[in-house]
Specification:
571 residues; Beta-Lactamase; 3 domains; 7-stranded mixed beta sheet; 6-stranded antiparallel beta sheet; 31% helix
Amino acid sequence: MMRPFGRFSLSPGDDSHQLPSRHESLRLSVDPRSQRNPSEPEMDDLVVGSWLVQAGVITADQLIKAVRHGQERGVTLRDALIELRFLPSGVSMPGGQLEHNSRVAPIEQGTGGLGGFLGNLFGGGARPQAENPPMQAQGFASTTGFEIPRNPLPSFATSGRTAVPNRANQELHEVEVRQSLREAVEDGDVPDLAEAIFNRAIDCRATDVHFDPRDDDYRVRFRVDGLLHDITTIPYDQAISVVSRIKLLCNMDIVERRQPQDGRISHSYNARRHDLRVSTMPSGYGEKIVVRIHDAIAELIGLNQLGLFEKQATILEKMLRRPNGMILVSGPVGSGKTTTLYSFLGSVNSPYRNVMSIEDPIEYRLDGVNQVQVDSRAEMGFSEGLRAMLRQDPDVIMIGEIRDHETAQIGLRAALTGVLVFSTTHAGDASTTISNLHNFNVPSFMLAGGLIGIVGQRLVRKVCPYCRTQQNPDRVKWQTLGLPEDEAESAQVVYGQGCPACFHTGYLGRTGAFEILEIDEEIRELIMRKSPKDQIRQAAEARGMQTLKTSVADLVRGGITSLDEALRITP
């Protein structure tokens, strides 16, 4: 006799030892002789389990397996789900909270699949008393942050259809996928699949993982060396479970699919801890997920490792020795600005200085630096935190980003009154940064007096050393980059043929390309007059500034990068 699981038991039959498919009916009957042990789950657990299926956290098959497992081992549904690795450890399943006056839609009866399984809970004598309204559930919460809200839940069963999307029978598409990912997809093991994707991304040196919903599947892409690459596709029903699991792990509301959400996961791989920053965004086919991978214990890069040319390094070191003033780092998203800022902090950090930073988020933990996290919920943005820092007797302040007029003014005021300030802005080059600050309505005298230098930068892919080869340059491309035409005939440029080491891209790793605009008297005068950015650039070049374009051209000449890559990133 199969022992009851809570107050319910699986009906024995010829196929009682066979796991039903998600399209077969699971026959349930109420055992009137069974008395609920306080340690056994009530019907609440099964209702919650069915909701987890509807939310995509687990599949119908997984819920059925968990019920079987719970009967065989005499454990609760929660413990069964955890033991089978369908849920992470630490999840709390709410119990004893079903009431008749809350605001959740009743579960409908069905004839087959998970619908029949759940619907039959209310049939055969199991339905609540007729005089009571349909059983409804109050909002639940768990220690991991997933919630069943007070909003009405959708019905779980109609006409014998399963609760998961009608994509469960889709066969795995033929895709070019790494073997580790292929095995996880074919096994359908959601925890293993999510972990395999993240581990493979780390192996590939990916900075971001994209889960892109489409009509029948999710496309998975890795951003490696600044560019996205297709890695695999996941059938839609499995992808929904992966997305829901990721949201569960970073304490997002897994019910909410119409609003963007942000969260974080701590992931360990190869004895290293990685912070995974998760962002969700609703789209026409479902939720798009982007996961930013950050090595929490990566070593910081020093100034001598950024890729500066000797003349540039000399100018920058002179700026960093100044007791006060503002140094800005400008460039598009993903151009390495934060890495440069941390190298600045590392070069000026000293026991004799009070070094502070306000960041969003804190990328690296630095000994000796008082780091503050922006917290919008506590109404502490960059400007509010910066004001408070100025009362902390700072010598050096790093501002993660200048986003508005107020932050720019406070930072420049600090620079004028004895503090060395570092920050970033989004701009195409150094001279454009000045125009952008004028657009923030920052007074010209503050800009001219507070700024001591602007670093414009890009990240350039390096040609793979394992498959690099040389060839004569294309003359049109050579001239487009601004290189002397008379050098083209005798010059040799490098490119990568593609190999397994670089995933057949021809590039492996990146380095920086920089231009450094030093604010001297002539440039200061142009800032005071609000001169156009082109005039500022021309004046800086006349005084010997190495522009981004010339820096990239020198990387081509030096055999660091290819002509095509140089043209791709040149502003």
